[in-house]
Amino acid sequence: MKNLLECKSDEDQLISSALAALAHPARVAILRYLSCNGARCCKDVVAQLDLAQSTVSQHLKVLVESGLVRFAPERQSSRYSVDHAALRGLAGSIAGLVDSCCADAEPRANTQERQG
After folding, report:
1. Which long-range contacts (CB under 8 A, 24 or more apart) does 75-78 make?
2. pTM for the full model?
3. Are 64 and 17 in contact (CB under 8 A)?
4. Residue 110 pLDDT greater than 70, yes or no
């Protein structure tokens, strides 16, 4: 049997980082807003949420660091946008995780059903 730490990979780190970024409802709301409205400045996001500008800025920073949101500095106001490729990659990684975890469990579940 493999040690859990031996199974750790770069993909595990990416999944973990992205899910940690999405672990706050405000960040999910920001991601949804940006996804539906294209590149927006922080002020636009603040106008959609009942949060202080500093709080929204911190949430945007977390999303940018996770790679799910892109930051484009501009002279007057910087723009934030969803990195759709990164989001699709996360979805694929999670699907792969579910498939790999469930692949071994299905035969055992079927065997247990037959025995029960």
Report:
1. 77/41, 77/42, 77/43, 78/41, 78/42
2. 0.78
3. no
4. no
